[in-house]
Amino acid sequence: MAGGRMQLELSRVVQGRSRLGVLKGLGRTGQHSLEVPGCLLYTHFGTVPHLTQDTLHTLRNLPSVTQVTLSNIAEHQEVLEEFKDGFRKFAGLHDTVVYCSLHDPATLCPTGYTTNKTVSVWGSGGRIELTVAKFMALQKTVQPDWYQSMADGETWQNSTSRKRVRKSVDRTLAHLDECLLVHQKSQELDGVEVFGVVEGGDILEERVRSARETAKRPVAGFCLDGLQTASMDQRLRTQLITAVNKELPEDKPRLLQGVGRPDEVLACVEAGVDLFESFFPFQVTERGCALCFSFDISPDPERAGRAPPEVLELSEEKDAAGDTKQNGDLNHDDQTQMTSFEINLKDKRYQDDFRPLVEGCGCYCCKNHQRAYLHHLLVTNELLAGVLLMIHNTSHYHGFFSALREALAKDKLDLLKTRVLRAGAQQMEREEQDG
Amino acid sequence: MASLARRALSVASPLTLRIVAECPVTKARVCDLILPHCTVNTPVFMPVGTQGTLKGITVDQLEDLGCQICLGNTYHLGMRPGPDLIEKANDLHGFMNWKRNLLTDSGGFQMVSLVELSEVTEEGVKFKSPYDGKEILLSPEKSISIQNSLGSDIMMQLDDVVSSTVTGPRVEEAMHRSVRWLDRCIAANKNPHKQNLFAIIQGGLNSKLRKACLDEMTKRDVPGFAIGGLSGGEEKDDFWRMVTLSTDHLPREKPRYLMGVGYAVDLVVCVALGCDMFDCVFPTRTARFGSALVPWGSLQVKQKQYAKDFQPIDPDCQCPTCKRHSRAYLHALFKSDTAAMHHVTIHNISYQLTLMRSVRQSIMEGRFPEFIQSFMKRMFPSRDQYPSWTVDALASVNITLQ
């Protein structure tokens, strides 16, 4: 198979499961690398939401891999075909690795449109049906450095039957085999990596079957699908991922789709996941919120035993606003619900709060603006709110991943979990109670 | 000796105008307008950042584009977040973190154009707040008080605004009242050493009334004058005559601000007629609809014809958008993300500021008349498509369009 040079170099495996390392040999020239655990740079059609180059580049240490999705791209196939030189050039992306996924992780697709031979994506003009042939034609036109093979992951709803789950595993494997056939024959895809997709809904045996079978194929790594935030609670997710990872080769990366909340990320890293999609900061931005959870694991004797200020603030806000989630209800349809890792800047209390979003955050927003200003922008529906929040939330989220890697390197994962989860503690308690 | 005297005065004044060059053919001039936060090079186009933000553009981006002064809106900011909060935030500069100059208008125009049931009396303008239905009175004193809290470098008087399409005694009444309100504004200004109060010449489309207004207002010692009551849907033939009448009777050594003008052709012609400063929401507003301003008019990026057009908006443009992105990419991006709007906004602001810089350069180099000729040629397909008002207006300042 005309594969690339992607190689996972693990430097540590903590407690037999959490992995720390570097994914090397990325991109056509193999020059790029991505630290794991890590996340990809989430974009809409090659653009980080709300940001132009200037605003994007106020951020340091952006991931070297940019995620684009066929749900954004498919409707522009003709244009890209005429352009000929691939999506990276078309979008004005320089010096980045382009990873192409099927769906946009921030939006759940309508269900019921998948067939044995097709999956559907939703563009601005409506539904676009993809056969493997069309899917691969798109890949040849997009010319990513790496893509996931076509998959049927429509198993995230509670009511998915066993039969349906089995079908999704079968179809996904069939699609993978067909994709690989076309891939091997395509010169345009020489050097491009393919990830297989592990399905199986919430059924352990199907998950194991899917993992085993996918691992037999010559893929560079694995996407774990159907485990999206809205689809199941973390306990089940951890169980399934752990079982799946047992079947997958240790030296190939595992990318978990559709999971982005900090507490979930931590749990999934502990279950052996390497890569995540960074759509969560975007969702937080869209609801006018700013990430503020602490991930500080620096040794500071004064801090030990004292809750960081943001946590106190969050508790106050929760008490004032009532529960952010209904008891016992996972609310599958609404990924837009506020979490306890963020503050809602539309709240009146920020009207005259002249502090930065997060004290000590070095991002452009926190260095230049105050909560009161963000509050004003949100109340008046100004576009700049999205720009500034996206900058901060992206910065904060990537800072979290950086801290996560540091924690794994220094055996401080427990400390990090305490910091991060203290904010979400009440939330998780409720989830555990509901089983 | 005269310049020494002027310099001595300028120590106390928060505005100094230095005339750098004057066009020997037209009434155009190039000036350096020294304001508290930085010097503004005129002729200048001032982008409008209504609610303390320039529609998706950060202050850094605005600075990088070379913007030296932009607008904030007293009516909107007076409503939300309100003058008290902005004062606490170290005035509007502090609140938005804009380090260069700000100009605030009085709120008068919004009063009339936006709100229902506004009633004008000698006291001020009474209206119903759109946010809580309460009755509010915007008087000259109140407007200046808000603007004092906003801390803008240039403040506008509250004027009795009447639509340019209105005729009859109302126009005269408004003109006289504007003079009286100017005096009340001057008296109410708490910060004459930090904030410049500009008068606004009214009088509608009536030369006699305009002249009377000019005579009266120029008796007041204000640091600058705006030409108001135009750019509201009146005939262009009337418009330019009022502009040139105004600049004929405004003092040479004070800046002339033509309010609400921003179309490229209008800018070039009105510079020739002697105006220094301009503002308009058009370039930034139209950007959000995908309309990109170019030397030959405008380009609707969202139209199908650009889906496969792989050039930048303007191949000669040096703005960040044109240096990196194609029409085709922007066309597609409009379907996926708000950033498409920001790209076009940046381009449009760049276009406006670059245009003014080119105008300025040509005046300084004594070739403004030639500039006008090639500008018009680029903008219109042929000579007979030149709007007749531009031909007449430019003829009045010795330019015969070829």
UniProtKB/TrEMBL annotation, chain A:
Cofactor: Zn(2+)
Annotated localization: Cytoplasm; Mitochondrion outer membrane
Signal peptide, first to last residue: none
Main localization category: cytoplasm
Listed InterPro entries: QTRTD1, Queuine_tRNA-ribosyltrfase, TGT-like_sf, tRNA_ribo_trans-like
Binding site for Zn(2+): 361, 363, 366, 392
Cofactor binding, note field: Binds 1 zinc ion per subunit.
GO biological process per UniProt: tRNA modification
Residues covered by the tRNA-guanine(15) transglycosylase-like domain: 19-423
A Pfam family that the UniProt record links to this protein: TGT
Any one Gene Ontology molecular-function term assigned to this protein's record: metal ion binding
Domain of life: Eukaryota
Swiss-Prot/TrEMBL keywords: Cytoplasm, Membrane, Metal-binding, Mitochondrion, Mitochondrion outer membrane, tRNA processing, Zinc
Similarity comment text for this entry: Belongs to the queuine tRNA-ribosyltransferase family. QTRT2 subfamily.
HAMAP family from the UniProt entry: QTRT2
Subunit structure: Heterodimer of a catalytic subunit QTRT1 and an accessory subunit QTRT2.
Protein's name in the database: Queuine tRNA-ribosyltransferase accessory subunit 2
TrEMBL record, chain B:
EC numbers, comma separated: 2.4.2.64
Lineage, highest ranks first: Eukaryota, Metazoa, Chordata, Craniata, Vertebrata
Ranges for region RNA binding: 260-266, 284-288
Subcellular location: Cytoplasm; Mitochondrion outer membrane
Binding sites annotated in the UniProt record for Zn(2+): 317, 319, 322, 347
Record gene name: QTRT1
Protein name per its UniProtKB record: Queuine tRNA-ribosyltransferase catalytic subunit 1
Keyword annotations: Cytoplasm, Glycosyltransferase, Membrane, Metal-binding, Mitochondrion, Mitochondrion outer membrane, Transferase, tRNA processing, Zinc
Native source species: Amphiprion ocellaris (Clown anemonefish)
Active site: residue positions: 105, 279
An example Gene Ontology biological process: tRNA modification
Domain tRNA-guanine(15) transglycosylase-like: 26-379
